[in-house]
Amino acid sequence: MRLHHLFCYAALATLSLSSSAQAATTITWWHAMEGVLGEKVNEIADEFNASQDEYVVKPVYKGSYSDNLTATIAAFRANQAPAITQVFEVGTATMMNARGAIYPIHQLMEETDTPFDPDAFLPAVKSYYTSSDGQMLSMPFNSSTPVLYYNKDAFRKAGIETPPATWKAVGEAAHKLVESGASECGLTTAWPSWTQLENFSAIDDLPFATHANGFDGTDARLVFDKQEATVAHIQNLAEWQKSHAFEYGGRADSGTKRFQSGRCAMLTTSSASRAGIQEAAKGKFTFGIAPLPYDAKAVNQPRNSIIGGASLWVMRGHSDDVYRGVAKFLNFLSSPAIQADWASFTGYVPITTAAYQRLKSQGFYADNPGASVAIDQLTRGTPDDNGRGVRLGNMPQIRNIIAEQLEKAFNGDEPAAEALHEAARRGNQELAQFQQSVAH
Amino acid sequence: MTTFERHRFTPWLLLAPQLAIVAVFFFWPAAESLRQAFYVQDAFGLGERFVGLANFQRVMASAEYWQAMGVTALFSVLVAVGAMGLALLLAVLADRVMHGARLYRILLTWPYAIAPAVAGLLWMFMFDPVLGVLTHALAGFGIHWDAQLNPGQALLLVVIASIWQQMSYNFVFFLAGLQMIPASLLEAAAIDGASPFRRFVGITLPLLSPTAFFLLVMNSVYVLFETFATIDNTTLGGPGGATRTLVYKLYEDGFVARDLGSSSAQSVLLMVLVGALTFVQFRYLERRVQY
Amino acid sequence: MRYHRPHLDRLTHLLLLLGVIVFGLPLWLALTASTHSAGDLQSGIAPLWFGSEGLANYWQLLSQPIAGLGVSALRLLGNSLVMALGIAIGKIAISLLAAYAIVFFRFPCRTLCFWLIFITLMLPVEVRIVPTYGVVARFGLIDTYAGMILPLIASATATFLLRQSFMSLPQELFEAARLDGAGPLRFLKDFVLPLSKTNLAALFVIMFIYGWNQYLWPLLAANSPEHATAVISLKNLVQSTDTLPPWQLATAMAVMTVLPPVAVIIAMQRFFVRGLTDTEK
């Protein structure tokens, strides 16, 4: 019968997977890098595999970040976890608190006698993946930060000379763009919570949550709704929405479309979107990149923004031999040559100072105007409690809740203050639930 | 019915495949759901704690759960009214025609084969903010379509996609029901001088009411479970939870928030709801058999 | 005989045609858009008529790996076919045996067995999705065809229908078989199966469409592109990160995805209607 064949097939597939580990030790690496990024990941693995013959790194594309985290968790529960898995920044708290499931990177490096210097990483990157006792738990890999993209043609048409540096200037520019008919919509955004709340808070030195945004413990609670500037910012966006000076573009990165099609003249999204936007704008309009605006009423000087992207986590349940290979590979991965190549190819920021210097001396930033905006913005000043990042449990769900409440503010159902307050209240329930689930 | 008597092991052998699959892939997960509903567990399964009814209390106390309940109910009503109304109209028409009845039936039943996910995608394409045909048509009437922000429009989008997909199902049943109505009954009424409208209201509708009731239940079941794919391909439950059904919430809490306790509690509540629906349906079917 | 009035007939046809057009519109627009180039679809309104690309978009999807997925549409459609056939044939096979045992044998716990199977009617896989994932993962069946199929055949719709159909077989049949000296297997093969052909075909149509159109379960169970189905690939196509959605490809993929089940409905219209009205009784 057909079913019988299927069982055979499944059995065969399992066999063929396990039998490839004959000569060299296989290291599985689950990732969520699709398309060209995925091909680049394969290239990096091939390069490592060719450089020695003890270990074979096998990258496996597992779908979106969320899919990969689901798959990793399920595989761990079934004792089949990969050696390395890529987890997005909002999954950091989940991984960090799964003490029995992860092999902290500092410990791995120490126990395998692999040279490892956490200070080689950019401070904003390092701090994001470092525990409160100063130990690095996962390996940074692809980091980005939100920037402002603007349509130069539309700006010229509206008679605006320079990209706006403050949110006040953004509002004026957006209204001017719409009123002059230079574009149908002024500003749109992707990743609304990340750009408009998390990074708004960091840049304007406002707390997003207590206990250094969760860096100092799982008892942190959301407080963005209590910051006057944050509430005013969302209220402004809601006002602008009425005249199309701002258009909410949906969750995740779907807002990008409104900029790419030329409908909106400004967009706040990840620096890693540069290549995609370039591709779509080709032959239609020229665009520029500027730092994410700040609120001049909240700070005199904008502070550093915080990162997005993902890091690599090492999972428990493998042999010492595998871990020696993992350490070797991660060491290879963070070398300046690999990192500089990866950053220049993808639009992610270089994560080590050495890689940054290398790109600089190669003239990459001179040749690619706009590419340096992200790294400059990330590295200005020293990150303080409001600027190390956001490390909260259940963060993917909290982002959903925030997006939901922002939608209510933007469509006029609720005033910003009320919508944000409800977002914080519901988010705090998630945090309490998380705290309870990891306390045993 | 007479049966094979002297075979003691044969029936078990025959039953074994189905019993095994049902035990492993139905009863085990269902029991697991029931158990997990009383525990709080971290995502990796590293530890768990018995919390009694706390998960249920948490679910019942959350405004989002009741919002999802409301959305599911409203969604069901809109799809049932829309799909059944259209299906009844088209079935009555298709029942009337003498020529091309078979062709009409095929041309009106094929949407049943469309996956709910595809239905969502196709309607989203027509309502696309940039190139959607309907977006532009509506703009002509001065209506600004933005399902990403407008809760009413978002719900309308998934309702329309669902009606499109579900109409054909209702159509098949109504047409079958209409064809079972004895022609003599209608003729007798016509001879008595009843107008076509009177005949429809007085004879056809009452005879179709069991079918309609059955379809009402089936449409609710459809909205409960099948529309997950439609929503996941269009509105993702937004904006502001306006299109988040009970199953979508269950999925979000289980796989995005990884809150196993809460999602299991919701599973159990959903089991009770579906159980009640099934019970109602069978009670009604029993009655119909007695007629 | 019903009273037919010419102008009323014309109105009937007109309304029916209108219905056919309205219900056909979404697919028609997908069909026309799929023959345009990416450039055509990036600005302006979706075209109502065919474009310059002909079947080029279809050829691209079928012959090259899809960006972001890494496998071609051929593979996706093949996976859908394996899943739809696996579910249809698997479900009918196990249900056939179980229903046969319940109807034609007397054994202890017979009623209990029937109810154990019957109760599965109440809980579709969506309700027990989280623990089902856990169970399938424990067997290492995530990302295998078996894992995609088995939880979906753990349901009693087919058993229930076949049980009713077997019970309505004439009593004389059984007597004739016994006179013939037929054992249980020969009775099934030579008497019961031939008489159940129509029911089996009807069940097959419904189960095939059910399997082909599955969404939530394969989304979770097939977490690598090698096992992704056509239906779940569409979301990847439309929600491609940082690029405009390639609608010309998404619509072409949508057309290819709906073609097999629509063809089944049209070709097996008689069994489809029968299957639909029977499975739900």
From TrEMBL, chain A:
InterPro entries: Bact_solute-bd_prot1, SBP, SBP_1_CS
UniProt superkingdom: Bacteria
Alphabetically ordered keywords of this record: Periplasm, Signal, Transport
Compartmental location: Periplasm
Signal peptide (residue range): 1-23
Entry-linked CDD domains: PBP2_UgpB (cd14748)
Major place of residence: periplasm
GO biological process: transmembrane transport
Pfam family for this entry, one: SBP_bac_8
Gene Ontology CC annotations of this record: periplasmic space
Record family assignment: Belongs to the bacterial solute-binding protein 1 family.
NCBIfam families: PRK10974.1 (NF008211)
Subunit annotation: The complex is composed of two ATP-binding proteins (UgpC), two transmembrane proteins (UgpA and UgpE) and a solute-binding protein (UgpB).
Record-given protein name: sn-glycerol-3-phosphate-binding periplasmic protein UgpB
From TrEMBL, chain B:
Record flagged with keyword Transport: yes
Intracellular or extracellular location(s): Cell inner membrane; Cell membrane
Transmembrane in keyword set: yes
The entry's keywords: Cell inner membrane, Cell membrane, Membrane, Transmembrane, Transmembrane helix, Transport
Pfam families recorded: BPD_transp_1
Domain ABC transmembrane type-1: from-to ranges: 69-281
Cross-referenced InterPro entries: MetI-like, MetI-like_sf, UgpAE/MalFG_permease
Annotated transmembrane regions: 12-31, 65-94, 106-126, 171-191, 203-225
Cellular component aspect of the GO annotation: plasma membrane
Main location: membrane
GO biological process: transmembrane transport
Membrane topology label: Multi-pass membrane protein
Matches recorded under NCBIfam families: PRK10561.1 (NF007852)
Subunit relationships: The complex is composed of two ATP-binding proteins (UgpC), two transmembrane proteins (UgpA and UgpE) and a solute-binding protein (UgpB).
Family: Belongs to the binding-protein-dependent transport system permease family. UgpAE subfamily.
Protein name: sn-glycerol-3-phosphate transport system permease protein UgpA
Highest classification ranks of the organism: Bacteria, Pseudomonadati, Pseudomonadota, Gammaproteobacteria, Oceanospirillales
Name of encoding gene: ugpA
UniProtKB/TrEMBL annotation, chain C:
Domain ABC transmembrane type-1: 77-268
Transmembrane segments: 12-31, 81-105, 112-130, 142-162, 191-212, 247-268
Pfam families the UniProt entry points to: BPD_transp_1
Keywords from the UniProt entry: Cell inner membrane, Cell membrane, Membrane, Transmembrane, Transmembrane helix, Transport
Keyword Transmembrane: yes
PANTHER family cross-referenced by the UniProt entry: ABC TRANSPORTER PERMEASE PROTEIN MG189-RELATED-RELATED, SN-GLYCEROL-3-PHOSPHATE TRANSPORT SYSTEM PERMEASE PROTEIN UGPE
Assembly behavior: The complex is composed of two ATP-binding proteins (UgpC), two transmembrane proteins (UgpA and UgpE) and a solute-binding protein (UgpB).
Family the UniProt entry places it in: Belongs to the binding-protein-dependent transport system permease family.
Protein name (database record): sn-glycerol-3-phosphate transport system permease protein UgpE
Annotated organism of origin: Salinicola corii
Lineage of the organism: Bacteria, Pseudomonadati, Pseudomonadota, Gammaproteobacteria, Oceanospirillales
Gene (name only): ugpE
